[in-house]
Amino acid sequence: AASNHRPTWGMGASFQGATGPVRTSSNGARGAPQSIFCLRSSELRYNTRTMHAELLAIGAEIVSGQTVNTNVAYLARRLQDVGIACDRHTAVSDDRGRIVQGLREAMRRTPLIITTGGLGPTFDDITMDAIAQATGRRLILVPRIARHIRRFYRTRRRRLNRLALRQAALPEGG
Predict the structure, then answer these.
(1) Average of pLDDT values for 154-174?
(2) Amino acid 120: pLDDT
(3) CA 1 to chain centre
(4) What angle do CA 25, 29, 32 make, to 5 degrees?
(5) How far is the C-alpha of 171 from the C-alpha of 10, rounded, in Å?
(6) 135: Cβ–Cβ under 8 A, 6 or more apart, which residues?
(7) 76 near 69, Cβ under 8 Å?
(8) How remote is the C-alpha of 28 from its chain's centroid?
(9) 56 alpha-carbon distance from chain centroid
(10) Cα separation of 84 and 62, whole Å?
(11) Do residues 139 and 165 touch, judged by C-beta distance below 8 A?
(12) Does the structure show a pLDDT above 80 at 32?
């Protein structure tokens, strides 16, 4: 039976105290923001029921074994630290159909889906498009996230390009 869960998506979104973005790359090194959330136990409002989550890692390099998925290990520990049960980890390649399928399957099982990898300032990024398709929403530019990205580049004295601002596009209502 399908669930009525409406997962919250994207960088900087708020979900029971989740704040983002965490700056890690798919190999765990510090880098540009990706679509993962940083959970701080002091900000989490505990419920009487245990919250459940799934992690969806996106990237051919992860599925092929070329990159060890340290993000999933880190996120599963952080979820446990704040009382959220991580029920499943899934990895899919950079294929829109597989990403949409993985998201839809996870949406039937859990209210909190955390994606990692697959999002970045590249011309061929399809992650947010796939999330929009899976949730039936259109992508919109979120000004608060765009400001964060601009500040990120400005403080590092790096040139901002349009590809980086694509990260500020989230599914409407998300």
Answers:
(1) 88
(2) 63
(3) 25
(4) 45
(5) 8
(6) 6, 7, 9, 103, 107, 171, 174
(7) no
(8) 15
(9) 8
(10) 24
(11) no
(12) no
pTM reported for the whole predicted model: 0.69
At residue 35, the pLDDT reads: 41
Rounded Cα distance between 120 and 5, Å, is 26
* Rounded-to-integer distance, Cα 45 and Cα 155, Å: 32
114 near 55, Cβ under 8 Å? yes
- Per DSSP, helices labelled H in the chain are 60-63, 70-81, 96-109, 127-135, 143-155, 162-165
Q: Which residues contact 147 (CB under 8 A, 6 or more apart)?
A: none
Q: Which residue has the tokens 């608060």?
A: 144
Q: Exposed, middle or buried: residue 82 (CB in 10 Å: 0-12, 13-18, 19+)?
A: middle
Distance of alpha carbon 16 from the chain centroid: 15
pLDDT digit string, tens, across residues 110-135 = 989 999 986 566 777 888 899 999 99
Higher pLDDT, 48 or 160: 160
For residue 140, pLDDT beyond 70: yes
